[in-house]
Design brief:
single chain, alpha+beta, Four Helix Bundle (Hemerythrin (Met), subunit A), seven-stranded mixed β-sheet, globular
């Protein structure tokens, strides 16, 4: 079925749920008002529907390939990239003095999500460039910014990030890539990187790699790592692509999904690079890019959930099976349950995603520490719950199709295959959860508790309007507050880590109830209130069992020895 961009859904969320009015009321983003938002979302939605969505299937059937060392992208992807670049969608939130639009991250996040729903394989390319733009904006020298940012923002050049090595995945500090100063302000980068999304392409004039590597005096671990900008072609005196650099794509990975997006093994053999940020300060610079990417990957999950839901709903409305009022399977109770779960979780995940983006925008506009802390707290939740939701909704979409969901020609399985990696890259969802219960709780849980207080205050206001929905949300927030207090009291970090994933999921469940309640208050006699009732009555209660799991500690995980794990 054709993809339809849910522009009205974003408008509703901005207006009634995630507090976007706070963003447009700031001096920084005063021009991004309601009319501007609607115009931008409508135009981007049209591009996603008409240009990107038709490439979804072609990218799967005709994957990127390496021919005699030259990377060939799927049919139409070059035109798709051109449409994204010419529309200005790469540089939406990039600085205006380098050619960007300077728009709020909430808008960029919405457009990225629509692109993900339309064609995730292609959307991953501009997402990588956006992350590199932000890293360079915050950490690069003025000379590097002047040369690279305009071309990355315009889409003339594309960007990547290179962290992972065969022996250094989540443990980035174990990398072995080396760097030697050339004596002229440049550096020679040597090493191999794996899992490099869009490590090369045949539509951008240059491909710019951010590479983590270690200088000769770099200590072991993450504190000795530096970041370098290493272009495929070394710019000449006029800033145009010049001679080829000493790097190449060794091979492409054969993957479960995302076939249209090349995942490269990159080899650097004394390649010329430029230092980004301070020596041995590479992780700080790279985390700027990764935090941007984590929000973006959460949006990928939500976008695929939207695409999979639309696909499943269209099938359910057409598939005739059994005796129902409509004559189609959409009226079977279990099919209706699946569709409602998909739609309710999609709303919750999208609201969390946009609330995180709003917090980032408020931090940018005001510089206030509370907003920075809110954005930091919500980032791992938005990434993990967004991608978990994408996976769960895509899997349910296959189930709605029944046997035809297992047949590739229907396209239902592609959503599941494509989205599955989002829970793994840019920091696995387990690592997101560990980050939430450790680093994000270094303030003793104060940021989390401030958010829970807001949830309870809204529930109190809703008691006179929708008491049957308000009370469960208030109680869920209170239970989560008690679990948070228990969490921060644990001196053994392994006890926190043992329950980190269920704790994050419980937090997301409660946030989902909060945002569904806000939607119901704005539409108390309409379908949004009915959807909120479904979520609050049937999905929100999961938070209680998740928090029981979260507070069980680590001892039970080690009750079985390693030999016992292998036993009968």
């Amino acid at each position: 079925m054709p993809y339809r961009a849910p522009v009205s859904e974003y408008e509703f969320l901005f207006r009634h749920v995630v507090g976007y009015d706070q963003v447009s009321e700031t001096a920084r983003f005063s021009e991004a008002d309601g009319d501007t938002v609607s115009a931008i979302l409508t135009e981007a939605g049209k591009m996603c529907e008409e240009v990107m969505a038709p490439m979804q299937r072609d990218g799967d059937l005709h994957p990127a390939r390496l021919e005699n060392g030259v990377l060939r992208t799927p049919p139409g992807f070059g035109d798709g990239w051109k449409a994204i670049a010419e529309g200005g969608w790469i540089g939406m939130s990039a600085p205006e003095d380098h050619g960007g639009m300077g728009l709020p991250m909430a808008l960029t996040t919405s457009v990225n999500e629509m692109m993900s729903a339309a064609c995730l394989s292609l959307q991953l390319a501009p997402l990588m460039s956006q992350g590199q733009i932000e890293a360079l904006e915050h950490h690069a020298s003025d000379a590097l910014k002047a040369l690279y940012l305009p071309k990355l923002i315009s889409g003339e050049w594309s960007g990547t990030m290179n962290l992972t090595e065969p022996q250094a995945g989540s443990d980035v500090g174990a990398l072995s890539s080396k760097v030697e100063p050339n004596g002229d302000g440049t550096y020679a980068v040597t090493g191999q990187k794996i899992y490099i999304s869009w490590g090369d392409n045949d539509f951008a004039d240059n491909v710019c790699h951010l590479v983590l590597a270690r200088l000769p005096d770099g200590v072991s671990g993450t504190k000795g790592i530096s970041l370098f900008l290493v272009p495929k072609y070394i710019p000449d005196d006029n800033g145009n692509p010049g001679k080829a650099n000493s790097l190449k794509v060794v091979s492409l990975e054969h993957k479960m999904g995302l076939h249209g997006s090349p995942t490269c093994v990159m080899q650097y053999d004394g390649a010329t690079g430029w230092l980004v940020g301070e020596e041995h300060g590479g992780m700080a610079a790279m985390f700027t890019m990764m935090n941007n990417a984590r929000l973006g990957v959460g949006g990928q999950g939500v976008g695929v959930a939207e695409g999979a839901y639309q696909h499943a709903l269209a099938y359910a409305l057409e598939r005739k099976q059994g005796r129902t009022p409509s004559g189609t399977i959409v009226d079977h109770a279990d099919v209706r349950r699946m569709l409602l779960e998909m739609k309710a979780d999609l709303f919750a995940a999208r609201a969390i995603l946009l609330a995180c983006a709003v917090a980032i925008d408020m931090q940018t506009a005001t510089g206030e520490g509370d907003w920075a802390a809110r954005a930091a707290l919500l980032t791992p939740i938005a990434k993990a719950f967004g991608t978990d939701t994408g996976i769960r909704v895509a899997e349910t979409g296959v189930q709605v199709h029944g046997g035809m969901g297992f047949i590739e020609e229907t396209g239902a399985a592609q959503y599941y295959r494509d989205v599955r990696v989002t829970a793994i890259y840019e920091g696995t969802n387990g690592i997101q959860a560990m980050d939430l219960v450790a680093r994000k709780m270094m303030d003793g849980g104060e940021t989390a508790c401030r958010l829970l207080e807001e949830i309870q205050k809204q529930a109190e206001r809703a008691r006179c309007i929708l008491p049957d929905l308000a009370e469960p949300v208030w109680q869920a927030a209170e239970t989560l507050r008690e679990a948070t207090e228990w969490l921060v009291s644990q001196g053994d970090m392994n006890d926190r880590f043992a329950g980190a994933v269920p704790y994050l999921r419980a937090f997301a469940r409660v946030l989902g109830g909060h945002y569904h309640l806000a939607a119901a208050m704005a539409d108390k006699d309409g379908p949004r209130a009915a959807l909120a009732r479904f979520y609050i009555d049937r999905l929100l209660p999961e938070h209680a069992s998740l928090l029981t799991h979260a507070q069980a500690g680590a001892a039970g995980l080690y009750a079985l020895g390693i030999d016992d794990l292998a036993g009968a």
